[in-house]
Amino acid sequence: MSYPNQNPYGQQPGQQPGYGYPQQQPQQPPPPYGPYPGGGGMPGMQMPYPMVMPGGAKAARVMLFVLSGLNVIGLVLAVMGLGGVSKASHNVSPYAQTEDVTAINIGKGLLIAVIVLIVIFTAAAITLALQFANGGSGVRVGTIVFGVATIMLSLFSFPIGLVHTVLGILVVVFVSKDESNAWFNRPRY
């Protein structure tokens, strides 16, 4: 047994859709070019800017803080090493050869240079990480330069600096992504 059409307002079999029925629109092929350079598909429209920091930028920010923490640990070790070398230089006998004294002085100078470099990199990492929330494209470029410099310097102490190398690479990759670029290029009023 067949039941009659339960919808008295619906389309009857064999009829064309009339008034009140949605017309089927033919599918149009996509335009041969990409989106309009100003943003969306239409001239004058802007792409929406992110309102919340994207995950890649957040991860890079956290890695900058981790790098600064590792730098502080390295700073403490370098200062302890400088103290040990300085103490050893005071215990050198007055009859020691000049090569020994020169080596100790070169060691002191290298440790002081390393301490200054660590302080500069720690301050740069903290400053850049704190500017992520409101910084512009200069913060992004500075972070990329910082990441590349970290990678280059960590290669000199490769077995120990492997963590710095990996974190530097990840910072550069995350900050270079399109979503991070949109975050740093958003308008700030």
How would you characterize this protein structure?
This protein is mainly α and 189 residues long. Helix content is 60%, strand content 0%. It has 5 helices and no strands. The protein has helices spanning 55-90, 98-130, 137-154, 158-176, 178-184. α1 packs antiparallel against α4, α2 packs antiparallel against α3 and α3 (137-154) runs antiparallel to α4 (158-176). The termini are far apart.
Please name the defining characteristics of this protein.
5 helices, rod-shaped, 189 residues, 60% helix, mainly alpha
Q: Which secondary structure elements does this structure contain, and how are they paired or packed?
A:
Layout: H1 55-90, H2 98-130, H3 137-154, H4 158-176, H5 178-184
Helix pairs in contact: 1-2, 1-4, 2-3, 3-4
Number of strands: 0
Topology as H/E string?
HHHHH
Number of helices: 5
Helical proportion, percent range: 55-70%
- The backbone outline, from C-alpha atoms, is rod-shaped
For the largest beta-sheet, the strand count, sense and barrel status come to: none
Supply the helix-strand structural class: mainly alpha
- Overall residue-averaged pLDDT value: 79
Oligomeric form:
single chain
Strand content: under 5%
* First-last Cα distance: 71 Å
Poorly predicted residue ranges: none
Rg for CA atoms: 32 Å
Concise synopsis of the structure shown:
With 189 residues, this protein is mainly alpha-helical. The protein has helices spanning 55-90, 98-130, 137-154, 158-176, 178-184. Helix 3 (137-154) runs antiparallel to helix 4 (158-176).
